[in-house]
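[User] I wish I could look at a protein chain and see how it folds. I have put the entry right below:
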Amino acid sequence: MPELPEMETYRLQLTPLIQGMTITGVEVTRPKSLNVEPERFAQALTGSRIVRIDRRAKHLIFLLATGEVLLLHLMLGGSLFYGSAEEKPDRTAQVVIDFGTKNLYFIGLRLGYLHLHKLADLESLLSKLGPEPLESDFTFDEFQQVLKGKKGSLKVTLVDQTVLSGIGNCYSDEICFYAGLLPIRKVPSFNIEELNRLYQAMRTVLHEAIGYGGYMDSPLFAGDRLTGGFDARCRVYDREGEPCMRCRHPLIKVEVSSRKCFYCANCQI
């Protein structure tokens, strides 16, 4: 599932491609991916422009010139592609937004959605999300406050979107490894030094992942050399049985609250 770095990579790369461009048409093959009738959706978009693309947690927010917004959550298996019909990957697109000769394809929206809302409703729609971990004003003191009173495992806490926004299965494991902490430990067991390591690791790993285009290898456009570049740099995620890059012990995989979890049992404490 795309997480914060993947969605931020989409935002950064899409902005110069479609910002200010006039929408010339819309195609919807799965009405359930929308929250309004396809006719209403097409009418709202056609002839308008996307004036800005924002991100909140794992969502992309497309601000239309009309003042309405598109709220995108790709969920499991979703991806985006921008280009011509000939360039598009051989996967079904549930929604297509046309920009003249090129299109933005919303692919794999079987669980995800692309909803049309009034801008004024956006804050309440996203009100349950926790703070953004990379915001400059999200200090270590605030990080401690967010974790205060949490009783569950570190893994489950990090992926809880009401606690912190945008971290999922991949980056929770990568952050824990970078910090040298076991994801299966209970949050109350961490001392202040360990929490500081966790906070610094969180910011370092997420910034690094954005710089390398995230871990999901689904190019946004033909010739895209950035998207998915972090996959080769993952230290533990999906590396079961491989030697730990720090101590060479085999990495293990367990399930934590029905989520797969990868770590080194030797050098993470």
Notes: The chain has two domains: 4-125, 140-263. The chain has a mean pLDDT of 97. The helical segments are 4-18, 38-45, 122-125, 140-147, 154-159, 169-179, 192-211. The radius of gyration is 20 Å.
